[in-house]
Amino acid sequence: MADTLVNVAKRSVVVDGFTNSVLDPNEPMLGPLQSGGTIIANTAPGCWGPMITPQLRGGHEVTRPVYIEGAEIGDGVVVRIRDISVTSMATASGHDSVSNQYCLGDPFVAARCPVCDETWPETHIEGVGQDSVRCNKCGNPVKPFAIAHGYTVVFDDAQEIGLTLNKAAAERLAENADHYASLPDQSVQHSILNYAPADLVGAMVRMRPFLGQLGTTPSKAMPDSHNAGDFGAFLVGAPHPYALTEEELQQHKTDGHMDIDAVRPGAVLVCPVKVKGAGVYMGDMHASQGDGEIAGHTMDVAGSVTLQVEVLKNYNNDGPVLFPLLEDLPPLAKPFSTGEKKRAAKLAQQWGLETVEEVAPISVIGTAAGMNAAIVNGLERAAKLLDMSVPEVRNRATINGAIEIGRDPGVIQVTFLAPLSNLDKAGLGDIAREQYNL
User: Fold this and answer.
1) What is the CATH number of domain 1-315?
2) pTM above 0.90?
3) Least confident interval from 84-88, 96-100, 259-263, 365-369
């Protein structure tokens, strides 16, 4: 990381590679990038591809982090998502089952060959199907994950509709898996298209791409997929080198792994800075997903991303805050119309109120091992950020918002209309005004 400090900050950075699925603050970053500059990246699929690639040490294959000039610990970075475009022509996914004989405690982090007893073995592809990933040393199939019920899907050229295939068509794609997956040149993952699952046939799907991973580098090395309160809980007391205590997890994670479907073009995400330079990274693009990602996985794809990033000084939150597109807000969290404001002003005059508060939407992310604890985390973060009590946040989220599920088991959004005066004190008011034309 020290090498980046002597370089002149750039107006744009093109990301040219990936981590080994571990976010390590001691590894060199790309850049530096000027505050307000642009990051352009070609991302690799997350989830299933890395999950069946034992040499990778996390559930995704994210981009190398970018150093942002002027970002200090305790600041935030404002990430404006300018573009997300799918480049994969097809993908495969499904609900998983786990075999503990193929891992050291955690199949996402420490895959092993049960014959060689080697952790993170190098592997290759032989044939098609769920035994196609084989150990280079002994030739044994290595499969910490199996697909219990899965599908292969192809996308139309307009990137609007997908269709799930039968077994014969899925196996035909598998013969040229890396091509149809559009794996970036520097990606090392095996494409999940090699598995050719086909339990769900002839189903149409809508494409609505977003990033499952977008955030800043944690202040201690951790697997990328575990940079969140729910997946991160698997690191607590784990029997592999990336084990953390509960206190370390809470201190160092930045909750970059959200799987929130509103993290899409036009949205604005504010992320905490826990290492000098922030280390902005991304990955795990999804072609689409319903709230909660209830199957555990969705349609992971390669794609191109353009972000604009600027530093926000003294950000009073240890996790992300999202300003979604207007259409992605819950009905009660949408800004009030001019007509509604006039009717409220009339009521105020009628009942002797001097003012009606000005409000704007905000979505505060909460994560934890389980859903209830994630909700509490989100409420507490919102209260601290906006200088409110937790009961006040509960009331506002109830009458002017909603609790939304990002991912089962433990990522949520506390979305509500907050007073602009409080947002201004938190340094977020102008972001809300710009985002919602207030």
Assistant:
1) 2.60.120.580
2) yes
3) 96-100
